[in-house]
Amino acid sequence: MIIGIIDYGASNLFSLKAAFERIGGSVKMVESNIPYELDLLVMPGVGSFGQAASSIEHIRESVIDFINNGGTFVGICLGLHLMFESSEEGPGRGLGLLAGQVKRIRSGKVPHMGWSETRLIENSDLWDGLKNVEYFYYAHSYFPEYFGDGIKALVDYGEKMPAMVQKGNLIGVQFHPEKSGIPGQLLLRNIINTVKK
């Protein structure tokens, strides 16, 4: 299993790399065109939307081609936000893979940081072995206001926000599985197992 992690200079790349390697993944850092041999492509998530959007502009079409050719794409936190077209956080264009707008959290203390109850609302093979309600680690001030197909889990932080989206070969999570202990590791393993099927 060859996993590509997009390096746009603003993320916790090495903790994510280590998390995938612990469960048997072979990880390549991707800075330019997407290698043809990748099984899975991951957009990690620490930083600001505007900076990240600018940093990935040169590989935008390569990422979209990978997805259009059936490759599985995973967006984590800011990586999930970049799956949309735009964000209130800053200028720049996302990948436009999902319809909706990324908005600032309107209730509770911002940023939303720490462990939060995350509830499965629709069955998903990515949730195999997890309880219907699990705790994952969050660190974000913005969230996608998304009402389309594929919302699998929600987090309630004064308002309900998508915690996990799975639509075709697109997977997005608002939390950080690489910082979420055993539940996060199990989720990453399930992602790998889904790609292998």
Short description:
With 197 residues, the protein is an alpha/beta fold.
Question: Can you tell me about this structure?
Answer:
It is a single chain. The protein is built from 5 helices and 11 strands; from the N terminus they run βαββααβαβββββββα. It has helices at 13-22, 49-56, 60-68, 78-81, 181-196; strands at residues 2-6, 26-30, 40-43, 72-76, 101-104, 112-120, 133-140, 142-145, 151-156, 160-167, 170-173. A hairpin with a 2-residue loop joins strand 10 and strand 11 (170-173). It is of the alpha/beta class and 197 residues long. The chain has one domain (2-196): Class I glutamine amidotransferase (GATase) domain (Rossmann fold, 3-Layer(aba) Sandwich), CATH 3.40.50. The termini are close together. It has a 9-stranded mixed sheet, sandwiched between helices.
Examine the coordinates and then state which fold CATH places here, giving the name of the CATH topology: Rossmann fold
Please write the string of helix (H) and strand (E) elements: EHEEHHEHEEEEEEEH
Question: What count of helical segments does DSSP give?
Answer: 5
Q: List how many beta strands DSSP finds.
A: 11
Q: What value does the Rg take, in angstroms?
A: 15 Å
**Roughly what fraction of the amino acids lie in strands?**
25-35%
Number of domains: 1
Give the helices and strands, then pairings.
Blueprint: E1 2-6, H1 13-22, E2 26-30, E3 40-43, H2 49-56, H3 60-68, E4 72-76, H4 78-81, E5 101-104, E6 112-120, E7 133-140, E8 142-145, E9 151-156, E10 160-167, E11 170-173, H5 181-196
Quick tags:
197 residues; Rossmann fold; 5 helices
